[in-house]
Amino acid sequence: MRTTRSEQLFDAARAFIPGGVNSPVRAFGKVGGQPLFVARAEGSHLWDADGNEYIDFVGSWGPMLIGHAHPAILEAVREALEHGTSFGAPTEREVTLAERLCRIVPSLEMVRLCNSGTEATMSALRLARAYTGREAFLKFRGGYHGHGDAFLVEAGSGAATLGVPNSPGVTEGSAKDTRVCDYNDLEAVEAHLASGEIAAVFVEPVAGNMGCVPPLPGFLEGLRAACDRTGTLLVFDEVMTGFRMTAGGAQQHFGVLPDLTTLGKVIGGGLPVGAFGGRREIMEMVAPAGPVYQAGTLSGNPLATAAGSAMPGWIEEHPELYTHLEALGVQPDEGFARIREAHGFPITWHRIGSMGSLFFGEGPIRDWPTVEATSADRFAAFFTGMLEEGFYLAPSPYEALFLSGAHTTEEIDRFLQAAERQLTRVHAEVTA
Ligand code: KE4
């Protein structure tokens, strides 16, 4: 049988790149088959190396909030490109991006730019430890905060997808200070914090790396109160939720302000930008203002900050984006409720703002154990069927689906029609 261009590229890639990909969750490991090699993308669509067209719900794992190849982003990068690609010296665009982030994200008084969400969270952890003088920190089972050693303990996203939530190579020494409890289990958090030994709680204010799992009512407020009672810093990892539900992120949506926030994805407009920030008295500890070292050759890169500052700039000029995203989001809310009612399929749909997940289980789904009890096999069969129908979803049950300003209500209708066909097929196969 003729091999496709994607197959040829994957063969070549595996000769030089571990698993043929530069990030494990792209490898289709949990859904079978092999990854598409993408040739180009525009708006809500992408084309693979064989010219097949898809409606894209991965959005580069979050950055493409206003769609691929958006004119405002491309123009900003083209203009910056003419003047060079990196200087290793401060530039005006870094000030523009930092100022915009501090204006838009409620808890940010100061921010340090870096190159990825991983850099942001590992730096925020170092800062939290320095500020509190404590070493232990708390994360949640199935939570993913990048691949820094201390965070690869019962981690979600690609780590859970590949079944290595505790990665080899992470030494006991670097994991010993990581405390873990279940998402939405406020009592367990309070028990950990009562020791007075916890530097910080790292939380995805809407979990997106075990699939989309919203906080139960009062959970985030409870974390805030428990941290206040015990001198623990509350860190919102908004790498995924930043700008996703409102411009100010989950902290604005829920009205709970953390001490530190980590950002990434959307704030780079598709180019590598991460950031961590928060209260001035904490951030003033970061070198060279203070003693907590943190650095990066390409931090604040002129092309990345061109794309990065264009994104919040466009969003501030187009507040109607969130009205559109909410209208798009209501469609699967209603669509999957109708499908579940009509067919009795054991599915659970979660959505907040422009991120959501379809779980293959009755629910309720509130934490990693209840996510883990859903059917990854049915998800894989559903994913494959949807791909064949031209809908590109994240190739893992432990990821979210992302809507963008470029998606249309007609495309979401088509998605739901295909979903009903594929759910019917998957259910028939399972019950045959
Ligand atoms: P990066 O280092 O991949 O830029 O960001 C790490 C990170 C930190 N915090 C949260 C809440 C995140 O979601 C992420 C990265 N998310 C995954 C997808 N769930 C990135 C995709 C990948 O690993 O290829």
Architecture overview:
The strands form three sheets. The protein has a seven-stranded mixed beta sheet with strand order 4-10-9-8-7-5-6, with helices on both faces. The protein has a four-stranded mixed beta sheet with strand order 1-2-3-13. It has helices at residues 5-16, 71-81, 92-104, 117-132, 157-161, 172-175, 186-193, 219-230, 249-254, 280-283, 302-317, 320-343, 368-372, 376-388, 409-431, and strands at 38-42, 45-48, 53-56, 110-114, 136-140, 178-181, 198-203, 233-237, 260-263, 274-278, 348-352, 355-359, 391-392, 401-402. The chain is globular. The protein folds into two domains: 5-68 and 320-431, Aspartate Aminotransferase, domain 1, CATH 3.90.1150; 71-317, Type I PLP-dependent aspartate aminotransferase-like (Major domain) (Aspartate Aminotransferase, domain 2, 3-Layer(aba) Sandwich). The longest helix is centred in the C-terminal third of the chain and has 24 residues, at 320-343. The protein is 40% helix and 14% strand. α7 (186-193) runs parallel beside α8 (219-230), α12 (320-343) runs parallel beside α15 and α14 (376-388) crosses α15 (409-431). It contains 15 helices and 14 strands. By secondary structure, the protein is an alpha/beta fold. Bound molecules: ligand KE4. Ligand KE4 binds at residues 23, 25, 61, 116-118, 121, 144-146, 157-158, 204, 208-209, 237, 239-240, 264, 274, 399.
